[in-house]
Design a protein that fits this description.
single chain; 11 helices; globular
């Protein structure tokens, strides 16, 4: 995994140099509508998120909790189309420097055409993909195409991952390894599973340069605790709820509050 060529890795390393580590913020594209989701992503970057993770709404999510599922269903009901991803990324990257990763299940990419998707994402200024439901051994086409287009490919590691699987993930990932803190769906939890710390150590031992922890992080204290052992903390559900309940202003306040956990 090369930290030199990846804008995502560069943003995480810059955050680590300045503070405790990086904040990766998630929001679904098209929620509650496309324009608001773009404004929300821009606000998130300006309020303290170092890397943006923008989710492609999908009708059959595997690992999304209720809050995110409801948001993505709202986006789909409002007429979201895959092409909206590229418009959103283009508009966000025109306004802020934070690198933008698209989180997507693999089927929409496959249906759109892997190379077509990569070409349009690159043209829009996107940094790469987070792909929760495809493993490196099944991703030869994506690995080859992402190399050609200079896009990051973020694979997931779970507490149940074998040593052989972690070797594959560490070798194939660029940007950072998405380290799943607990088994189960996304959402807020009062305390993060201690497995996250052990898994982060295992991921690094298998050669990953950078590891960010997601699933269950919902306040500044949890961000700070995560950055004791990880390079970045990934926050989603609490931001989606803040946008749902308080609009862009409510989201801005939530991001500022939680980003305080990245300070030394």
């Amino acid at each position: 995994m090369s930290a030199v060529q990846s804008p995502v890795a560069a943003a995480i390393l810059a955050a680590k140099a300045e503070r405790r580590g990086a904040l990766v913020g998630y929001l679904p594209i098209g929620f509650p509508d496309l324009d608001t989701s773009v404004a929300a992503a821009i606000a998130m970057a300006r309020s303290g998120a170092d890397v943006l993770e923008l989710g492609l709404p999908y009708s059959d999510p595997v690992m999304d909790g209720v809050v995110i599922q409801e948001a993505t269903q709202t986006a789909l009901a409002a007429g979201f189309r895959v092409r909206d991803v590229f418009e959103a990324v283009r508009r966000v990257t025109a306004e802020v420097d934070a690198p933008v990763l698209v989180m997507t299940y693999w089927n929409p990419v496959l249906q759109y055409g892997v190379e077509r998707f990569a070409a349009e994402l690159q043209a829009a200024g996107g940094a790469g993909l987070i792909t929760p439901d495809i493993t490196p051994d099944a991703a030869a086409e994506w690995i080859e195409i992402s190399e050609r287009y200079g896009l990051d490919r973020v694979f997931l590691a779970a507490p149940t991952s074998s040593d052989a699987r972690l070797d594959l993930v560490a070798q194939a990932t660029t940007g950072f390894v998405y380290t799943v803190s607990t088994m189960g769906i996304t959402g807020e939890r009062a305390a993060l599973d201690a497995a996250a710390r052990v898994l982060s150590e295992r991921v690094k031992a298998h050669g990953a340069e950078l590891a960010c922890v997601g699933i269950g992080i919902s306040n500044a204290e949890q961000v700070a605790n995560t950055l004791d052992y990880a390079d970045g903390a990934i926050v989603g559900t609490v931001f989606v709820r803040a946008l749902r309940d308080g609009g862009v202003a409510g989201l801005t306040e939530a991001v500022r509050t939680i980003a305080a956990g990245t300070r030394r």
